[in-house]
Amino acid sequence: MDHWQRIEAAIAGAATDRLPVALWRHFPVDDQDPGKLAAHTLAWQRAWDFDLVKFMPSGTYGIEDWGAKTAYEGAENGARVVKQVGLNRPEDWQRLPKLDVRKGVYGAQNAALAAAAKELKGSAPILQTVFSPLTTARKLAGEAALQHLRQHSDALEAGLKTITEVTIAFGEEALKAGAHGFFFATQLATADVLAPSQYERFGKRWDLEFFDAFKGRTRVDMLHLHGMNPMFDELAGYPVGLVNWHDRLTTPTLGMAAGRFKGALVGGVEELGLLVKGSEAELRAQVRDAISQTGGRRLLVGPGCVAGIAAPELNIRAVIDEARKAA
Questions:
Q1: In this predicted model, what pLDDT tens digit does every residue of 263-309 receive, in sequence order?
Q2: Which of 14, 91, 139, 244 has the largest count of CB atoms under 10 Å?
Q3: What is the value of pTM for the model shown?
Q4: How many H helices and E strands in the chain?
Q5: Burial level of 313, CB count in 10 A (0-12/13-18/19+)?
Q6: What is the CATH number of the domain that holds 108?
């Protein structure tokens, strides 16, 4: 099987010649330069030949054109931090401008993807990273976004409408650039932050508007549920073929999730502690356990979230080799 056949078989629950596997990581500082980000993406894929390429712009690209200031301060996962929010007052949501995503920081991400996709020539699915509108709102305004959600809901919803329109426009440009679909990340569909009813109104409504805009136009999409108490069942019906969450750090486990999602589960590997500091034997054991939990069907071996940037090559190789032993 090639990468595409392997991914599509896993989503369908069919047998594969070997288990699909993919890891992804940030490239801090260099990810601010489209050329360098494309080069790192290509080098990463050429080194490991993953079955799926999760494109890795910085996690803050979606707020910088609206005035937020960010920096990389050495996080072990390579993530940038917001140093200055781009919005403070409730009334600012109603004045949020609709951006031209072909320009600025937004435009740079798809320029980088286009350069990488041109070289990869469709050999493996490449997914552009997109954040849910509510996630972008929270990053843009910080904790004030949650206050506005509770106390100034109409104002926040006006902002979410604009953010959704911009996110859809960015997705359109990503497909033109060569993306085959999206890695759609939500960081607020967790009980640590919101109640399910709140996410239904302020999250899911806008998430599904994004997916509706691309119905029948993508080949593969992945949903990422970020947080320690994910609303797995509430979002399991999203129109995606792959779902990813911190399965080694919270529930549901892979075994618990099997049968609760129509496509393939993505996970099995603890992305920071064990991948960075664990032994090859421990990582091989995690892969075998993931296979045991799922019976080796509807599974793509991967991290629960972005891999630590200091993960040793021996540990990466251990994950890949153990996954590829399984059929």
A1: 999 999 999 999 999 999 999 999 999 999 999 999 999 999 999 99
A2: 244
A3: 0.97
A4: 14, 9
A5: exposed
A6: 3.20.20.210
